[in-house]
Write a structure and sequence with these properties.
Blueprint lengths: L3 H26 L5 E5 L5 H17 L5 E5 L7 H10 L9 H7 L11 H4 L8 H4 L8 H12 L9 E5 L4 H6 L19 H9 L3 E4 L15 E2 L9 H10 L2 E4 L5 H6 L4 E6 L11 E5 L1 E3 L26 E3 L3 H16 L6 H16 L1 H6 L8 E3 L1 H7 L1
Parallel strand pairs: 1-2, 3-4, 3-6, 4-5, 6-7, 7-8, 8-11
Antiparallel strand pairs: 9-10
Length: 390
């Protein structure tokens, strides 16, 4: 086995002539055009989707004095999204030379050290979704192909369906078995606690898809309208994206694939989220977070859910974290469906209390330093959460 130091030396030796040649070419072209090379992160679906869209929107809004070219690795978490990404961002095969250039000339002005999406921490801080149309589109052939797959499941073209993207640790453990991601485990949820919610929506005329690339447990249900897509034969990179982009709405606990729904401008219900700012800032959303208690048994305050940076690593078990029960998830789903049917207009009795907390949210120092004022314009807090937090 080659030692890391030897690997590094070999890498440098290989990169020296390549980087030297590329820097000469770029310098010669400089009087005519200033080219910069960058990369798009493609190892995590949430970043992959958000960064693709944010980079596109950034260049849509801002004129650049440079010609920026991006590379997208062939090794990605979703091959279909890669095909979309290279059409959306300023992609070029030439940008693969970003890597030797970074290795030998890390301070070169021809390197994009942080792309616009990385500067925004893969978050729509600028409110691009409020200004621009979704850029996630499918050809007539792709739409016909997707519906043909669903028709084989007795789902007729045009049927209403909902996607559940519920996080567990299996995906990261499978993808990065050499990295300990256990500090993220407090974000996990038990899929079985969502079954009552799924049955309710199926009774309301929706087909239900349990999404996921790699999941811990199978979804056990005899209901033909509830599809455990994560363990099905129809699962593919294409269908992952198509379903999340075309569902009536998405129910999620906050996990990478839900960014497809976010940037397709699909309404989202966040259940068992760990903080409000982990939700999409621009979509029509309702949030019902997990319940956090301090060591002394007292509830945390509302501000905790705005800036809970201390939860990045909860190794000291500072907080007791309680997931919503099946009944609470069902109740929240009913709450969201009423809002959805009412075209996201609250009943009069609830406007004041929701407005009170949203204003409190936007006055918080974390929000002011992180987001623009027009973000979270359609933020709705669930009845379950409002009754618990008050």
């Amino acid at each position: 086995m080659i030692k890391p130091k030897i690997k590094k030396i070999i890498k440098i030796i290989i990169c020296i002539p390549l980087a030297g040649l590329i820097i000469i070419i770029l310098k010669l072209l400089h009087p005519l055009v200033f080219i910069r090379l960058g990369k798009l992160r493609s190892d995590r679906m949430g970043h992959f989707v958000a960064d693709t869209c944010l980079i596109h929107y950034y260049y849509e809004k801002n004129k650049s004095d440079t010609v920026d070219l991006y590379w997208v690795s062939f090794k990605t978490v979703n091959k279909y999204w890669r095909e979309l990404a290279i059409k959306i961002i300023p992609y070029s095969y030439f940008a693969i030379f970003y890597y030797p250039l970074l290795t030998i000339f890390p301070k070169s002005r021809h390197i994009i050290k942080k792309n616009p999406a990385e500067e925004l921490v893969s978050t729509d801080k600028e409110g691009f979704l409020n200004k621009f149309k979704s850029i996630i589109n499918f050809s007539n052939y792709e739409n016909s192909y997707a519906w043909k797959i669903l028709e084989d499941l007795n789902i007729k073209k045009g049927s209403k369906f909902v996607c559940y993207q519920i996080r567990d640790s299996s995906y990261l453990e499978h993808l990065y078995n050499d990295i300990d991601f256990s500090y993220h485990s407090f974000r996990d949820s038990d899929i079985s606690t969502y079954l009552k919610s799924m049955r309710f929506l199926s009774d309301e005329g929706f087909f239900v898809f349990r999404m996921g690339k790699v999941v811990k447990n199978k979804l056990i249900s005899n209901n033909e309208k509830i599809i455990d897509y994560a363990n099905s034969k129809i699962k593919s990179d294409f269908m992952d994206v198509w379903l999340m982009a075309n569902c009536s709405f998405c129910i999620t606990s906050g996990s990478g694939l839900d960014e497809v729904s976010v940037y397709s401008k699909i309404p989202l219900l966040y259940i068992n989220l760990y903080k409000i700012t982990a939700a999409a800032p621009s979509s029509r959303i309702m949030v019902c977070p997990k319940k956090f208690y301090k060591k002394n048994g007292r509830k945390v305050n509302f501000e905790f859910y705005i800036d809970s940076a201390n939860l990045k690593k909860n190794e000291d078990k500072k907080y007791k974290i309680i997931d919503l029960t099946s009944e609470e998830i069902l109740s929240t789903t009913k709450d969201f469906l009423n809002l959805y049917k009412n075209k996201f207009k609250l009943e009069n009795s609830r406007i004041d209390i929701n407005s009170f907390y949203v204003k409190k949210f936007k006055k918080h120092k974390f929000f002011k330093s992180y987001f623009k004022k027009n973000n979270f314009n359609q933020l709705f807090l669930s009845k379950i959460f409002l009754n618990w937090i008050k």
